[in-house]
Amino acid sequence: MNPRQITAFRATMRSGSITGAAKLLFVSQPSVSRLIADLEIEVGFPLFTRTGHGLVATLEARRFFHSVERMFIGLDKLKETAEAIRMAKDEMVCFGVIPIFASSVMPKAIRLCKQQQNDLRLEIFVKNTPEIVDAVLLQQLDLGMICPTHQYEGIHIIHQQSVPYRCLVPTSHPKAHSEARSEAGPGNHSHSRRKT
Q: N or C: which end of the chain has fewer CB within 10 A?
């Protein structure tokens, strides 16, 4: 299975015909037909049936197409991210937070961050704990604040307070190995530096 086969399949599904796909891709009809035939061999099931009215996608093809579209949406997101990085002039931090903290803790945290680094740009994502953990592991988020239900492999805790919530960074993140500091005060505990 290669990208040209997937692209030909996607174009055929979107246009509804081999001819339409060939026009979209600026290639010949036989090229598209060959790519589709090769893909059918790869996946092990027919993608289209030929009728008097042209091609009809099989049930398997429609199911497969949903995954293909998700993949292309992911690629589009990568392009958007690259564009944002290219155009950004100041630092951007993507932060994931569980709903309970979105309106209670985050406004004060944002104010404090802005006081320390005025040009810092924060992008806040409100998600549940498993979504935040996955996003941190995939490095889609720089930091995360969660309700710790258990230990997560590949996650490094850089701060933990008396409330049962943790701030997460991926183990490859520069902050994962920096020294954590905490000012002693009511309700404050030393920062946790253990790996989970």
A: N
Q: What is the rounded CA–CA span in Å between residue 177 and residue 175?
A: 5
Cβ-defined contacts of 170-173 (< 8 Å, 24+): 170/136, 170/137, 170/139, 171/195, 172/139, 173/139, 173/142
Neighbours of 160 (CB within 10 A): 19
Tens digits of pLDDT across the chain (196 residues): 888 999 999 999 989 899 999 999 999 999 999 999 999 999 999 999 988 777 899 999 999 988 888 777 767 776 776 776 666 555 678 888 888 777 777 788 778 777 777 777 778 888 888 888 888 888 788 888 887 666 667 777 766 655 555 667 778 777 777 655 444 333 333 333 333 3
Distances from the Cα of 50 to the Cαs of 18, 58, 127, in angstroms? 11, 10, 45
Instruction: Report the distance separating Cα 98 and Cα 104, nearest Å.
Output: 11
Tokens of 4: 């040209």
The contacts of residue 123 (CB under 8 Å, 6+ apart) are 92, 93, 94, 95
SS3 for 151-168, per residue?
CCCCEEEEEECCCCCEEE
| Burial of residue 196 (number of CB atoms within 10 Å: 0-12, 13-18, 19+) | middle
Q: Where are the alpha helices (DSSP H) in 117-162?
A: 129-137
